[in-house]
Amino acid sequence: MIRKRRLPAGSPKALVLVVAIIAATSIFPAVLLAEEPLVTNIFDSEDIINVFRDISAQTGVNILVEPSVQGWVTLELYDVPLEKALEMIVAPFGYAFVKVGDYYMVGMPDAKNPAFPLFTRTEVVRLKYAKAENASKMLSDFFKPYVKTGPEENILVITGPENVISRVMADVEKIDKAPPQVLLEALVVEVSSDTGKSLGADWRYEHKWGEPDTSVPGSGFVDFISGMWGMKYSVAGGLQAVMASMKTLIDSGNAEIHATPRVATLDGESAEIFLGRDRYFAISATTSEGTTTSTRLETIRTGISLKFTPRISETGEIMVKIEPEVSDAVEGSSGLPIVNRRKVATTVRVRDGETIVIGGLNLKSQYESKTKVPVLGDLPILGIFFSSTKNVSTETEVLIFITPTIIPSE
Predict the structure, then answer these.
(1) Rounded CA gap, 250 and 25, in Å?
(2) pTM given for the model
(3) Best CATH choice for the domain 38-107 from the list 2.60.40.10, 3.55.50.30, 1.10.260.40, 3.40.50.2000
(4) Span 35-48, pLDDT tens digits
(5) Which of 70, 176, 299, 374 gets the highest tally of CB atoms within 10 A of its CB?
């Protein structure tokens, strides 16, 4: 029997209108139609409690409704399976239903609701690539109360109604993708300060796409860290082309390659390369009474440090945050070490496989040079008259060439 009711005069006007005409025979299998009761009814601004009462009477299935459930329903149903009809009724209000034995219960899937466990289930999702904490932060604010994280196991624990679990799992699947990787190749070259200034003058150019390039071997355009030069430079062929162009300087002794390190890192993650040594200085301390003196070794790391953080853009370009540092330590007049540090921090944008150049990082060193007359300089006491000792200071410039390359996904 089809019944049609209207909202009594003076009742609230807030309505949820859902009009659905479903041809059940064309959508649901015949087996399902035989097992699940069908609902046919028309509700016009009907109290939701009366709606469930009418459906229960028509299907012969008990439907228990929590006291918090309220609202008005406008809906047309024609041969709709029972659970589909319940889903259409509760969805606009955020309610949920669950089958318990031979009856259904309808209520709000709120954690404060004593019946919350009846309307929900728990699903554990183990993430392969993304961090659980980061993935949970990316979810919609609506779903966050249903999700807990297990950082140590890198899992998400989802507790909620079926529709919430399905949606969260679908969103997590989109988030948990293998991040791309970037290979960072570095070439560290030490040249004399005069050679560095000469290179700075020779390489000060800017080439634009579509224009002939005859000034230096290379092509393209890349923003580049100036240091003290203020250049823009790009070399086709990466570090191999750079090494070929500097072969003359290396052969003549005006340049020395310190290292060619390579390191791979995930998109957005930092990587660090250190080329140097740990130096130890003896530090003496005397108590205020002047009776006890203690000595400890202080470690100071000096050399060349490179820190990279690449991020791949949607266009395939690579944004690289680069933080190089050159440091050296000498013993001061008081016996305490003096550490000199030169740092540059910047972010540049390059195309895949292009080379970034960092210059203007000076490296100073001091050493003792001793010369003597053969044989005579080795004589006890008299040898000092046939030998000389002097302190020599040298200043060189460190050039750093960095080539980021996107590693293809398998």
Answers:
(1) 83
(2) 0.56
(3) 3.55.50.30
(4) 789 999 999 999 99
(5) 176
